[in-house]
Amino acid sequence: MADASNRSGAIDTVMHEERLFPPPAEFAAQARIASFEAYEKLWNEVAADPEAYWERVGREELHWFEPFTQTLRWNEPYAEWFVGGKTNASYNCLDKHLDEGHGDRTAILWEGEPGDTRKLSYADLHKQVCKFANALRSLGVEAGDRVSIYMPMTPELVVAMLGCARIGAVHSVIFAGFSAEAIAERNNDAQAVAIITADAGWRRGKALPLKQTVDEALKKSSTVKHCIVLDRVNEAVHWQPGRDHWWHDLMRDASEECPATPLDSEAPLFILYTSGSTGKPKGILHTTAGYNLWAKKTFQWVFDHRADDVYWCTADCGWITGHSYITYGPLSAGATCVMYEGAPNHPDEARFWEIIERYKVTLFYTAPTAIRAFIKWGDEHVEKHDLSSLRVLGTVGEGINPQAWMWYHTKIGGERCPIVDTWWQTETGGVMMSPLPGAIATKPGSCTKPLPGVIPKIIAEDGTECGPDQGGMLTIAHPWPGMLRGIWGDKERYQEVYWSKVKGMYLAGDNARCDRDGYYWIMGRIDDVLNVSGHRLSTIEIESALVSHPAVAEAAAVGRPHELKGEAVAVFVTVKGCEPSEELRKELKLHVRKEIGALAQPDDIRFTNTLPKTRSGKIMRRLLRDIAAGREAVGDTTTLEDYSVLASLRQDEE
Ligand code: WTA
């Protein structure tokens, strides 16, 4: 059987979760999918003939410059959806609403961290995107070119994404917390021709420099010819004439006329780098029509969206959640979206609740790590604000422990809002499993049931399907429109990572179990990927960063349970040519920060004489996880340790 243990230990608490929360009657009465029977009927209809369903929905939901002639061409593991059709994601997000007479509808209600605000209608956003698309063209950017984006959460970040999509350029958004090294690695892998950034962005009252980091990255990114800089903070920046261009200069000269380019359904829309089980991040590739449709349809299903909703997703566009549920999904659906630039605790811990009250947010989507922080900060911050506008609450990024779920349900949802715990991945393009809020009763800690079009199967190590409550590898049985199309520049890795372990199935990389009611419970990764505050980190990436330091001989990184982050990064290091010290510990933390970014900085560093290894030389990660979690008694952790005794005691277990 697969290793079904959960590193964070959360499974111990959800294993016995029996509480069931049916959709509130008032909510169900007006929901799009208003009963379990309706959900089941739809799920069965799609499962019986996915192509017939997606053919119809594809035609209805997207704008087609040229209709497609084949719904799915499946040459495992390569899918092509809506073959022969021509569409454009920027058109679907903008022009379509203008065509339908909704140009005045508010698209973005933006709030900067210092408190500055902006409101953009669909017509305003359309105009900005057209101008920016022309600005890109004026620099010679063409369809198929890759463009990196390293920006703060401003409306211009969405404009940049849609501007690329409008002319068929492929964006690669890099989260603004990554280091210069990480940016350069991504620029080079994608062979980006341009990068879009800002002077800086606001974070907890401080200007976080971005252009400076990009300057550093561009020293090692030979393909990048242009750098577009948004003036967000009015910081002095270094300038390289010819290469660097102010956003406002380009926009001033750009025409507002820019018809969306009709693009092939399978034209690449974006690349988004994510961590896998090797040291090199994977450039997950999504294409135009299938991804766009999946983002739109899942947004409508999961949030039961209607025209008068005010929707707020607190993610950053640097992650897939921001791509699918800030940009492409809600904007295709014509939603009014709140967008916030900064930290949840600036100027104080009530900021999110203040925003919800101010904009009368009805649909709210955040992460369990944020919810755990809110719980710690105290209920008084919540109680000061009127949250009665809320009607659906969502979570994403990691499992939510039942205690946090109950707090979300009572304190934020006032016991009247369904909670949608959405399981999905960068690779899946959009939500795969989640309650439909008007149809599926929830159980705290379970992502409940698959969406229509998703056929999950849990498979044991020997390849057989698991029975109820048996943990195993989570796989998906049939292609779906939003699935990744590959890993940028690495055909073999795509096949090997996702399609080789279980025949004919997409391997998600998570362990899960399905209970007797057909509810799914995610139990953590099967590979060496950590989930720190909902962010995916590769242990090998962290280890590679550490061994690139001259004082490090060997390093092993593991996750350990952490009250707020879910998992914290614990590393074990053997040194060479020097003695372990407090200074070295600090230096190594900074080194990882410099190599990858602040989000990967180890929480604990332990020095050891040797890393515990099996007889065949494999690092005993399970033993290290136990030590890191304090489940295995060891001595003083500030000095050099020797785990070889523990290792020899454990040899037979690994
Ligand atoms: C984890 C984020 C439990 C999971 C959208 C997955 C979850 C990885 C959930 C993908 C959830 C995401 N319950 N685990 N509701 N949502 N995960 O690519 O391990 O950043 O494989 O996509 O996060 O992370 P990614």
Automatic annotation (TrEMBL):
<feature type="binding site">
    <location>
        <position position="345"/>
    </location>
    <ligand>
        <name>CoA</name>
    </ligand>
</feature>
<feature type="domain" description="AMP-dependent synthetase/ligase">
    <location>
        <begin position="100"/>
        <end position="488"/>
    </location>
</feature>
<dbReference type="GO" id="GO:0016208">
    <property type="term" value="F:AMP binding"/>
</dbReference>
<feature type="binding site">
    <location>
        <position position="536"/>
    </location>
    <ligand>
        <name>ATP</name>
    </ligand>
</feature>
<comment type="function">
    <text>Catalyzes the conversion of acetate into acetyl-CoA (AcCoA), an essential intermediate at the junction of anabolic and catabolic pathways. AcsA undergoes a two-step reaction. In the first half reaction, AcsA combines acetate with ATP to form acetyl-adenylate (AcAMP) intermediate. In the second half reaction, it can then transfer the acetyl group from AcAMP to the sulfhydryl group of CoA, forming the product AcCoA.</text>
</comment>
<feature type="binding site">
    <location>
        <position position="525"/>
    </location>
    <ligand>
        <name>ATP</name>
    </ligand>
</feature>
<keyword id="KW-0007">Acetylation</keyword>
<dbReference type="GO" id="GO:0003987">
    <property type="term" value="F:acetate-CoA ligase activity"/>
</dbReference>
<feature type="binding site">
    <location>
        <begin position="421"/>
        <end position="426"/>
    </location>
    <ligand>
        <name>ATP</name>
    </ligand>
</feature>
<dbReference type="GO" id="GO:0005524">
    <property type="term" value="F:ATP binding"/>
</dbReference>
<feature type="binding site">
    <location>
        <position position="533"/>
    </location>
    <ligand>
        <name>CoA</name>
    </ligand>
</feature>
<dbReference type="InterPro" id="IPR025110">
    <property type="entry name" value="AMP-bd_C"/>
</dbReference>
<feature type="binding site">
    <location>
        <begin position="203"/>
        <end position="206"/>
    </location>
    <ligand>
        <name>CoA</name>
    </ligand>
</feature>
<keyword id="KW-0479">Metal-binding</keyword>
<keyword id="KW-0067">ATP-binding</keyword>
<comment type="similarity">
    <text>Belongs to the ATP-dependent AMP-binding enzyme family.</text>
</comment>
<feature type="binding site">
    <location>
        <position position="593"/>
    </location>
    <ligand>
        <name>CoA</name>
    </ligand>
</feature>
<feature type="binding site">
    <location>
        <position position="510"/>
    </location>
    <ligand>
        <name>ATP</name>
    </ligand>
</feature>
<dbReference type="GO" id="GO:0005829">
    <property type="term" value="C:cytosol"/>
</dbReference>
<keyword id="KW-0547">Nucleotide-binding</keyword>
<dbReference type="InterPro" id="IPR011904">
    <property type="entry name" value="Ac_CoA_lig"/>
</dbReference>
<feature type="binding site">
    <location>
        <position position="549"/>
    </location>
    <ligand>
        <name>Mg(2+)</name>
    </ligand>
</feature>
<dbReference type="GO" id="GO:0019427">
    <property type="term" value="P:acetyl-CoA biosynthetic process from acetate"/>
</dbReference>
<dbReference type="InterPro" id="IPR042099">
    <property type="entry name" value="ANL_N_sf"/>
</dbReference>
<feature type="modified residue" description="N6-acetyllysine">
    <location>
        <position position="618"/>
    </location>
</feature>
<protein>
    <recommendedName>
        <fullName>Acetyl-coenzyme A synthetase</fullName>
        <ecNumber>6.2.1.1</ecNumber>
    </recommendedName>
</protein>
<keyword id="KW-0436">Ligase</keyword>
<keyword id="KW-0460">Magnesium</keyword>
<dbReference type="InterPro" id="IPR032387">
    <property type="entry name" value="ACAS_N"/>
</dbReference>
<feature type="binding site">
    <location>
        <position position="547"/>
    </location>
    <ligand>
        <name>Mg(2+)</name>
    </ligand>
</feature>
<dbReference type="GO" id="GO:0046872">
    <property type="term" value="F:metal ion binding"/>
</dbReference>
<dbReference type="InterPro" id="IPR000873">
    <property type="entry name" value="AMP-dep_synth/lig_dom"/>
</dbReference>
<dbReference type="InterPro" id="IPR045851">
    <property type="entry name" value="AMP-bd_C_sf"/>
</dbReference>
<feature type="binding site">
    <location>
        <begin position="397"/>
        <end position="399"/>
    </location>
    <ligand>
        <name>ATP</name>
    </ligand>
</feature>
<feature type="binding site">
    <location>
        <position position="552"/>
    </location>
    <ligand>
        <name>Mg(2+)</name>
    </ligand>
</feature>
<dbReference type="Pfam" id="PF00501">
    <property type="entry name" value="AMP-binding"/>
</dbReference>
<feature type="binding site">
    <location>
        <position position="321"/>
    </location>
    <ligand>
        <name>CoA</name>
    </ligand>
</feature>
<dbReference type="Pfam" id="PF13193">
    <property type="entry name" value="AMP-binding_C"/>
</dbReference>
<feature type="domain" description="AMP-binding enzyme C-terminal">
    <location>
        <begin position="541"/>
        <end position="618"/>
    </location>
</feature>
<dbReference type="InterPro" id="IPR020845">
    <property type="entry name" value="AMP-binding_CS"/>
</dbReference>
<dbReference type="Pfam" id="PF16177">
    <property type="entry name" value="ACAS_N"/>
</dbReference>
<feature type="domain" description="Acetyl-coenzyme A synthetase N-terminal">
    <location>
        <begin position="39"/>
        <end position="93"/>
    </location>
</feature>
